[in-house]
Design a protein that fits this description.
The chain has 881 residues and is of the alpha/beta class. The chain has 29 helices and 29 strands.
């Protein structure tokens, strides 16, 4: 094997071409089937079939792939199960948008034909997602791929719904819910995003109905809902209004009498202490209405337009109606004032429109008992382990304050609710199968919230409710979930309480939370800002291994990450460094085979040191991988590969490889291949493509690095003496190089090098390794002794166990150096004069942008510092001349 196995330059597209297909053909991503191996399973958080994968998906899947590849190499029986989510409202909205461009609505098609169109969309985008998975190199078992609407998962959804209903944990009722007027569907609380918007408090006067002329001042941010007011309320202890409780006021515009009630919900200290009560359009008012048996008047249609409660506004958009109502109140003398303010308003996560709190009949999950079970479990040995641990507190806080979950959605795409209503009697039937005389029953048209089915993902994908299913028996509970912290409420929490309720076990042992990927300036990536980055474009430019290296090492668990092309450049450069180091190894191992690798026998201090550093790195990286600290693991790998192996050991190996000692050459070749082999296997979970390409070219054992053994540390190589000795050598070489740089003496110029040792051990070590000193320091004269007397004019440095002296006369011609420095001084003096002249110009300072002026001031400080440094150097050399 020679360097011909690797091209002269690292070219990612060539390295990656066809590799993934070979892995699939080899069946490497399937479970091993070894009954003696410990199982390790991950279920892929299913991406929505709504479009392309973004950088966040790339990050998420890369972290999972690192974990599963690492565990596979460690000998675990690994299963990484892929799948996709039907994403109810999001997918339906996309399909409806597409149909709208063709001039068709879902109502034109009807439910059955619309669902056929949606399935076509799903198949098209599922293919896109699989192509992107392949490009990312993720090692999932496609033979087990699932979809949240496939037959098995639908059976699980129906089973869960029916059982929760029978336990009284699912109920149907009329409540205030979050309504999306664009999608025309209910939303759960966590599908609502609150944004600060410019609004107003509209102060209105409600006159008493007794003709006294007295009015009550009431303020609201949503005057259009006043048409549905059925009372005004005061606090029972508010002395200002004691005499009015039980009387009535005239509701402006509607011109009907509504009662004045007393309820402790009212805050006496806020505003006038009087509030309007609109039970059909506010969750708090709904509760007040229940306590006082108030009617519920819904004033809006499901598309956000006003209904015919008041004919004058029928059909108007709610915000247009707001403007007209304010004008009408003002004309009639009921408007007191408008008070501008900024307040938080809920918006639909999916469509972006302002959410309308609205009375609606929906299906709900009673959350209190389910949440309590989840919280109780966190106090046991079977708790879900959060990484970082602080997210356990986030999870517990949400569970403590959880509200009942509205699970019905007024959509067609999704799991249709398994409830039927008798066409004649109105009787309701809930069951996994339709009633026998189905023609007499009408099925509930609503579907379930997407999160209802995805909450079952860890066990439904493995065959539940068939608890005898082999995969369910073998791989559930799953081992680790990787997901973003932004869906801890949406998804993680729901998986935990549903799993505990239906399987009696936690859904996964560990949850690794990562953050969001932000733009380089720290802003969130979004279409509106135009700062989104397609991971496929990054792969085309840098290769997938560079992207995976950046994604895995650019952040600590739970923290956000900023995308940076500079960091991508650095990632590519690192891989290129590995590539070139590998080519060097291949060029110098001749026809070596795996059987030729022999580490027994005499080793140089460099051999011993690199083997010690390798095994120390294996210990550190393995420990960090177990704790999901991939960024820190990457730092250790980078330092070992770039600094220790490439910059030091490879350079030191040349001393042996270009020499005459054949036995020592054989040892050094063995060490080079052994260390490179271990480096590639350590890196493989992060950089699968390039490591396989190089590994195939070097002497190795096994058919693919995918299923090769992950390195295990051999503590017998942890040689403290060799490590300390190498640090002395490295310090010595660095010190000489630094001195040469300081006095502008090139490495090609031979020098006198005097090393005054402080102990016999250091002296013996340095004398044994003079070949390295001669190669890296280029001394014409080298003296190592405890008796050296320091020359009067010499550059010096102190290292552990020794002092280093380089006589100045050997390094430079002092007169020529002074002349050179004087020219340099002249240059910096001119620069100082120019910048100070510019800053002395009052017009420039007054009119130039502050950034420009500040840049000139920074230049001035830089040039002055350089001028002073050169002056100081001239002065010190002049004393020696």
């Amino acid at each position: 094997m020679t360097e011909k196995n690797l091209s002269t330059k690292y070219m990612p597209k060539e390295v990656e071409a066809g590799r993934y297909e070979k892995w699939l053909a080899g069946g490497y991503f399937k479970p091993s089937g070894n009954p003696d191996a410990k199982p390790y399973s991950i279920v892929l958080p299913p991406p929505n079939v709504t479009g392309k994968l973004h950088l966040g998906h790339a990050w998420d899947t890369t972290l999972q792939d690192i974990i599963i590849r690492h565990k596979r190499m460690q000998g675990y029986d690994t299963l990484w199960l892929p799948g996709m989510d039907h994403a109810g409202i999001a997918t339906q909205a996309k399909v409806e948008e597409k149909l709208a461009t063709e001039g068709v609505s879902r109502y034109d098609l009807g439910r059955e034909a619309f669902l056929e169109k949606t399935w076509e969309w799903k198949e098209e985008y599922a293919d896109h997602i699989r192509e992107q998975w392949a490009k990312l190199g993720i090692s999932v078992d496609y033979s087990r791929e699932r979809f949240t609407l496939d037959e098995g998962l639908s059976q699980a959804v129906n089973r869960v719904f029916v059982q929760l209903y029978k336990k009284g944990l699912i109920y149907r009722g009329e409540y205030i819910i979050n309504w999306d007027p664009k999608a025309k569907t209910a939303l759960s609380d966590i599908e609502v995003i609150h944004k600060d918007v410019e609004g107003a408090f509209y102060h209105m006067a409600y006159p008493l109905a007794d003709g006294s002329g007295q009015t009550l001042e009431i303020a609201t941010t949503r005057p259009e809902t006043m048409l549905g007011d059925t009372a005004v309320a005061v606090h029972p202890d508010d002395e200002r209004y004691q005499a009015l409780i039980g009387k009535t006021v005239i509701l402006p515009i509607v011109e009907k009498e509504i009662p004045i009630i007393a309820d402790e919900y009212v805050d006496m200290e806020f505003g006038t202490g009087v509030v309007k009560i609109t039970p059909a359009h506010d969750p708090n008012d709904f509760e007040v209405g229940n306590r006082h048996d108030l009617p519920r008047v819904n004033v809006m249609n499901d598309d956000g337009t006003m209904n015919d409660t008041v004919a004058a506004y029928a059909g108007m958009d709610r915000f247009d109606a707001r403007k007209q109502i304010i004008k009408d109140l003002e004309s009639a003398g009921y408007l007191v004032k408008i008070e501008k303010m900024t307040h938080s308003v809920g918006h639909s996560e999916r469509t972006g429109v302002v959410v309308e709190p609205r009375l609606s009949t929906q299906w709900f999950v009673k959350m209190a008992p389910l949440a309590q079970k989840a919280m109780d479990n966190q106090a046991t040995d079977e708790a879900v382990n959060f990484y970082p641990p602080r997210f356990n507190r986030t999870f517990m806080r949400w569970m403590e304050n959880v509200h009942d979950w509205v699970i019905s959605r007024q959509l067609w795409w999704g799991h249709q609710i398994p409830a039927w209503y008798h066409r004649e009697t109105g009787e309701m039937y809930v069951g996994e199968e339709a009633p026998a005389d189905s023609e007499n029953w009408r099925r509930d048209e609503d579907v379930l919230d997407t999160w209802f089915s995805s909450a079952l993902w860890p066990f439904s994908t493995l065959g539940w409710p068939d608890e005898d299913n082999a995969d369910y028996q073998r791989y559930f509970p799953t081992s680790t979930l990787v997901t973003g912290y932004d869906i801890i409420f949406f998804w993680v929490s729901r998986m935990i309480f549903q799993s505990l309720e239906f399987t009696g076990e936690r859904p996964f042992e560990n949850v690794l939370m990562h953050g969001l990927i932000r733009a380089e300036d720290g802003r969130k990536m979004s279409k509106s800002l135009g700062n989104g980055i397609d991971p496929m474009d990054v792969i085309d430019q840098y290769g997938v291994d560079a992207l995976r290296w950046f994604l895995s090492t650019g952040s600590t668990p739970g923290q956000d990450m900023r995308f940076s092309y500079d960091k991508m450049d650095a990632a590519w450069n690192f891989i290129n460094k590995i590539w070139n180091a590998s080519r060097f190894v291949l060029m110098n191992i001749e026809d070596m085979t795996y059987e030729d690798i022999q580490l027994d026998g005499h080793k140089t201090v460099a051999d011993k040191w690199i083997l010690a550093r390798l095994n120390a790195t294996i210990v550190e990286v393995s420990d960090l991988f177990e704790r999901f600290e991939f960024g820190e693991a990457g730092r250790h790998l980078y330092n070992f590969i770039w600094d220790d192996f490439c910059d030091w050991y490879i350079e030191m190996s040349k001393e042996v490889l270009y020499g005459e000692d054949e036995q020592q050459k054989a040892m050094t070749r063995s060490v080079l291949v052994h260390v490179l082999d271990n480096i590639l296997r350590l890196l493989h979970p992060i950089m699968p493509f390039v490591t396989e390409e190089i590994w195939d070219s070097i002497p190795h054992q096994g058919e693919s690095i995918v299923v090769a053994d992950y390195p295990v540390a051999d503590v017998s190589y942890l040689d403290e003496k060799a490590t300390e000795g190498m640090e002395v050598l490295k310090d010595l070489i660095r010190a000489v190089r630094n001195i040469r740089a300081e006095v502008n003496t090139p490495m090609s110029k031979p020098i006198t090098l005097l090393i005054k040792t402080k102990d016999d051990v250091t002296q013996a070590f340095l004398e044994t390794n003079t070949s390295y000193i001669e190669r890296f320091c280029n001394p014409e004269t080298l003296e190592i002794s405890a008796d050296i007397i320091a020359p009067e004019t010499a550059m010096s440095a102190v290292i552990k166990g020794a002092e280093i002296y380089l006589p100045l006369a050997d390094l430079i011609n002092i007169e020529e150096e002074i002349k050179r420095l004087e020219k340099e001084l002249e240059k910096w003096t001119k620069e100082v004069q120019l910048v100070q002249g510019k800053l002395a110009n009052e017009r420039f300072v007054a009119n130039a942008p502050e950034k420009v002026v500040q840049a000139e001031r920074e230049k001035e400080q830089d040039y002055l510092a350089k001028q002073a440094s050169v002056k100081e150097r001239i002065a010190s050399l002049s004393q020696l001349n």
